[in-house]
Amino acid sequence: MTKYNNKKIVIDGIKFDSKLEASFYVYLKALNLDLTLQPKFNLQPSFKIFKKTYRAIDYLADFSFSWKGQTLVIDAKGMETEVFKIKRKLLLFKYPGIHFYAIKNLKDLKTLLMTNPPV
Questions:
Q1: Mind listing the pLDDT tens digit for each residue in 26-68?
Q2: Phi and psi (nearest 5°) for 67?
Q3: How far apart are CA 24 and CA 38, in angstroms?
Q4: Cis bond leading into 117, ω under 30°?
Q5: Are 88 and 51 in contact (CB under 8 A)?
Q6: DSSP states along the chain
């Protein structure tokens, strides 16, 4: 169990942080997408000031794939933390060409992919 009472699940030898994330994977895999698991987006590079080094800030999403000519980034989110809300703003600012979605259930993911194109 994680701090948010999520149960880790293993599918195809891949460990997912929650049942929700695992269900998204199964659904997206069935669509035969060129799926990228845990794509990493750099929000701020590391830097050094007065001999102190500050680590980079990265955002690690759950999935990324191309859908109807657009890059979609999907995050299975049961709960939106304050850190997540800040990182989402930074991600959307730095990568304006992607379509980012924090989705709370499988039904909403299916609905998103049925829209033409998703917005």
A1: 999 998 888 999 999 999 999 999 999 999 999 999 999 988 8
A2: -140, 115
A3: 13
A4: yes
A5: no
A6: --TT-PPPEEETTEEESSHHHHHHHHHHHHTT---EES-EEEEE--EEETTEEE--EEEE-SEEEEETTEEEEEEE-SS--HHHHHHHHHHHHH-TTSEEEEESSHHHHHHHHHSSS--
CA dist., res. 19 & res. 76, Å (int)? 10
Instruction: Find where tokens 């379509």 sit.
Output: 99
Burial category of 24 from C-beta neighbours within 10 Å (exposed 0-12, middle 13-18, buried 19 and up): buried
Is-above-0.90 flag for pTM? no
Q: Other C-beta atoms within 10 Å of 71: how many?
A: 15
